[in-house]
Write a structure and sequence with these properties.
Layout lengths: L1 E9 L2 E7 L4 E6 L6 H10 L15 E9 L4 H9 L8 E9 L4 E5 L2 E2 L2 H11 E4 L3 H4 L3 H11 L3 H26 L1 H22 L3 H12 L1 H15 L8 H14 L5 H28 L6 H21 L3 H19 L4 H41 L8 E8 L11 E8 L7 E2 H4 L2 H17 L9 E4 L8 H14 L5 E4 L3 H4 L4 E8 L5 E7 L1 H13 L5 H12 L3
Parallel strand pairs: 3-13, 3-14, 8-12, 12-13
Antiparallel strand pairs: 1-2, 1-4, 4-5, 5-6, 6-7, 9-10, 10-11, 14-15
Helix pairs in contact: 6-14, 7-12, 7-13, 8-12, 9-11, 10-11, 14-16, 19-20
């Protein structure tokens, strides 16, 4: 339930905090006073896109705060859990800020929230029915969805649609495989050929092969260099070598240890160096005296290097990258070879089709069973709205199997007649604007009242609820909304005094022209409400007669 709506520098409103009552809240005011501003502000708080034009002229930004009571609202609590947010209180505060540069920000209980998150949460808190809802009645899809909701078979309808989409996906896959069957075989052969060519390189490390090849190609020169290095370090000739000179240095230092600690430290390091050089000479000796490698090994390495260079030129890739590319080829080959055969795919398509038919037939059976009862409910609500002869009927027309779709196997039309002796026809052919308006309102109300009574209900918002109605019909609409307000919070804009009189709270929007035009929100009580109802009934000049009429409207409220 919406507790309050606070606006700062929003359009024509400089600053205002509005407390919203339980039940039926109504908004009235002169044309152009800014009645829709409240709905715009509320829409922003539930994730609608912002417009910098909504920022009051001269201000840097606008702020809107919406405070909701979510006590015992399980779906909201579940939303917080699913989005890993903490719900510490039974109230939540949504803030939306609009900048005059076109940017906007949003916060939920003081924490930043994305527009997508805000929109999904907003759908649980507020349900806005626009003044264009009557146009939706002219779309067959809306009528079908409404029937499913009234019959409480939306889950089955979604399951049927999902089944049909799965069937279509399998069909498209089969068509795709059939269309590229020739290319598929060519691609498989090409991948086999490419993988066969590169196979010798897949079992080795190409960098190691290159290193080994370079060493073996220069092995005799390297052995000679090792022998020369060994001679410099340690030899049996009269030529000086490192080990001899190092031994002399050690002997010199050892003689001076008793005189200076420094010589002791140097001697210790020289002994370590002597050990390391001994290890190095062993390595050089082994390398210099090794046997020459097998020529076949060098030939094998030559072959691998040549293969790498050839494939590198062929595929325009470095040899090392070819190894990575080969893994991609292998994956592609496995996918192509594992594609189901036409027989297997045909069986899967038939199985999916039969599953869809089973669901579609079950859905149609439930729709046809529920349709008469839903029509009776619809007529019962329409007749008091100056449509005493209203009749309606759902007509189911079987489609050709090629025309089956996600909605099922039948076209469903809602036929209507408002006059005695006149045949029922589709709404778009015979219903007037006023009749469509009443039909839309009743369908929305039935949709709400038919929902699970134990579930938390979002606030209902009706924009221009009285389009196309007046007089006694408007009073019936008002009574309908007041009754609905006994179990659910409503907010509606109206131009009809008969509707406004039924509200539990009456909000007046007034425009004042000072240095800068400003709209003001006023909660009306007693005589102020009488004056507003009189204005709505009788125009600019309010008389005792129009006031008495307004009082009578309030007296008639049950």
């Amino acid at each position: 339930m919406l507790l309050s709506l606070t606006l700062y520098q929003f359009a024509l409103i400089a600053k205002h905090e509005l407390s919203v009552a339980e039940g039926f809240n109504v908004i009235t005011g002169e044309t152009g006073a800014g009645k829709s501003l409240l709905l715009d502000a509320l829409s922003l708080c539930i994730g609608e896109r912002a417009d910098s034009a909504m920022v009051r002229h001269g201000a840097d930004h606008a702020d809107i705060y919406a405070q909701f009571d979510v006590t015992a609202n399980g779906v909201v609590a579940e939303w917080f859990k699913d989005h890993e947010r903490t719900l510490d209180d039974q109230e939540i505060l949504i803030r939306r800020q609009l900048s005059n540069n076109g940017r906007s920000k949003a916060w939920l209980n003081g924490t930043p929230v994305s527009l997508a998150e805000l929109k999904s949460l907003g759908a649980l808190l507020v349900n806005i029915h626009s003044q264009h809802a009557q146009q939706a009645l002219l779309k067959p899809q809306f009528v079908v969805q409404w029937l499913d909701e009234m019959a409480q078979i939306t889950a089955l309808a979604l399951q049927t649609a999902s089944s049909y989409q799965q069937y279509q996906q399998l069909r498209r896959r089969a068509e795709d495989i059939a269309n590229r069957q020739a290319q598929r075989q060519d691609r498989i052969q090409l991948l086999h050929s490419q993988l066969s060519d590169i196979a010798p390189l897949l079992s080795v490390d190409y960098r190691d092969i290159e290193s080994e090849h370079e060493e073996l190609s220069n092995i005799e020169a390297l052995m000679q260099e090792a022998s020369h290095g060994l001679h410099l370090l340690d030899n049996d000739t009269d030529e000086p070598d490192v080990m001899t000179l190092l031994g002399q240095a050690i002997k010199l230092c050892d003689h001076q240890i008793s005189v200076s600690q420094t010589f002791g430290q140097v001697s210790e390091q020289l002994h370590l160096a002597q050990q390391q050089i001994t290890e190095v000479t062993t390595l050089l000796s082994d390398y210099a005296e090794q046997q020459l490698p097998d020529p076949e090994r060098l030939q094998e390495l030559d072959s691998l290097i040549s293969l790498g260079h050839r494939l590198s030129r062929k595929h325009n890739l470095p040899a090392n990258d070819l190894i990575v590319e080969a893994k991609v080829w292998q994956q592609q080959l496995e996918l192509l070879e594992n594609e189901p055969s036409s027989d297997v795919l045909a069986a899967q398509i038939e199985e999916a089709w039969q599953q869809y038919l089973q669901l579609a037939n079950k859905l149609n059976a439930k729709r046809t069973k529920a349709a008469p009862t839903v029509c009776d409910q619809l007529v019962a609500q329409l007749q008091p709205l100056a449509l005493p002869n209203a009749r309606c009927e759902f007509v189911f027309t079987a489609r050709d199997s090629a025309q089956y779709n996600a909605q099922g196997c039948y076209d469903i039309d809602l036929l209507f007649s408002a006059n005695v002796g006149m045949p029922m026809q589709p709404l778009h052919k015979i219903a007037s604007g006023g009749e469509l308006s009443r039909m839309a309102l009743v369908m929305q109300v039935l949709q709400v009242t038919n929902a699970d009574n134990n579930a938390a209900k979002p606030m209902l918002v009706f924009d221009e609820v009285d389009v196309g109605i007046s007089g006694g019909t408007a009073q019936v609409v008002g009574e309908l909304l007041r009754t609905l307000g006994q179990t659910q919070q409503l907010l509606a804009i109206t131009h009809q005094a008969q509707v406004a009189a039924q509200a539990h709270q009456h909000i007046l929007v007034q425009k004042h022209h000072h240095e800068q035009t400003q709209s003001e929100l006023v909660i009306l009580t007693e005589e102020a409400q009488v004056d507003e109802l009189a204005r709505m009934s009788g125009g600019l000049i309010i008389t005792d007669v129009t006031r008495d009429h307004a009082r009578s409207l309030l007296t008639d409220v049950k």
